[in-house]
Write a structure and sequence with these properties.
single chain, Recoverin, domain 1, two-stranded antiparallel ribbon, 2 strands, globular, disordered C terminus, Odorant-binding protein 13, odorant binding, PBP/GOBP
Amino acid sequence: TSLNMKGIKFVFCLIFLVEISTGISMFDQKWKQTTQVLLGDCRTKTGATKEDFETLRLRKIPTTKTGLCLMECLFEGAGIMDNGTFDKEGTIVALTPSVNGDLSKIRKFRELATACESELGHKRLQNCQTGKKILQCLATNGSKYGVQFINTKKMNV
């Protein structure tokens, strides 16, 4: 399925960075439709459960294989992963829409992505563990750069 790139990037921001606002413009509706397509595709590919989706919605790291595979599928769709490995440039692009052009925050995203690239390299782990390692790296290092990716009060690491 060919998806609108802005919509795909929005998936990541939607799940990990922003809360859904109650007012939905026409543009937001298009993003929402694209997001629903990606979520549906990932659910079909991974066999993810409602609980897996709820874990991500609560910004927690999944503990089930289906939840981890769902997260990896969404990361692939958002460009954070490419062919099963961490994609530094894709991560920066995926995060950028969440800061409305704030260059200092974009610079921090670049530093964060560089730190995770150094830590993770381009390893491809089995059983959907790559996405978990990526999120752990972003979460652990994110506070240094003013970004919160996961709900640290209920973190499942």
